[in-house]
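Key idea: predict the complex, not the pieces.
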Amino acid sequence: EAGVAQSPRYKIIEKRQSVAFWCNPISGHATLYWYQQILGQGPKLLIQFQNNGVVDDSQLPKDRFSAERLKGVDSTLKIQPAKLEDSAVYLCASSLVAPGQGFGTEAFFGQGTRLTVV
Amino acid sequence: GNSVTQMEGPVTLSEEAFLTINCTYTATGYPSLFWYVQYPGEGLQLLLKATKADDKGSNKGFEATYRKETTSFHLEKGSVQVSDSAVYFCALSSGSARQLTFGSGTQLTVLP
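Result:
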C-alpha cells in the first residue's frame, strides 16, 4: 500500500514570497490533516478535512494560510505571504476514519516538507 | 481544550537500560491515546495505542497503559537498544471529529 506522498521535500523562500505544498493521501482515506511542526516542538494541527469539507481550521492563520482538498483526494496548503516564523516542517497525514467513527484509528503521516523562510 | 504534556527531554540512556517517558493529558470525553515515533530522517509512525481505560498498548517491546484515574499514558521499555534512538510523541484523539493532538516530543538517545 502506497503511503502519504508530499512534495516538495525541501523549500527555501524569502519572506513575503508565496509557497505551496502538495499532499496525496492514502487511497480511500476520508480524513486528511495538515500539521505544522516547528523545530523542537510537537506537530500543531492547522486544518482537518473530511473528504473535501473542512472539519477544523481553528488554528489556521487565515490571513496568510489557505488549504483546499479537491474532489476529496489531493490537498494543497499555501502560504502567502510567508513570514520568518513560518519556518517549520509541514506534515500531511490521512486516516480511514470519518468523524464520529473509529475510536483509535491510526493516522498515517507523509515525510513532510521542510520550509525555510529567509 | 485538549492537551498533552510530555516529560522534558532529551533523554540519554545506555543500551539495555529501562526507559520511562511520562505523558499526561487533558481531554473532553473519552480520548484514544497514542505513542508515535519519529526516527532520524523518517516520518511519524504509530508505535502503539489504547482506546479505553486500563487498555495496554504494546509493540516492539514498548508498552503503555491507559490510566483514566491519573490521566496518564506513560511509555515504558524494559531494555532499550541503540536502534530505539528517536523522538517519541504522545498524542490523543478526541471529539466528534477525532482531532489528533500531540505533545511536544521527547528525544531519546541510546548509547552503546
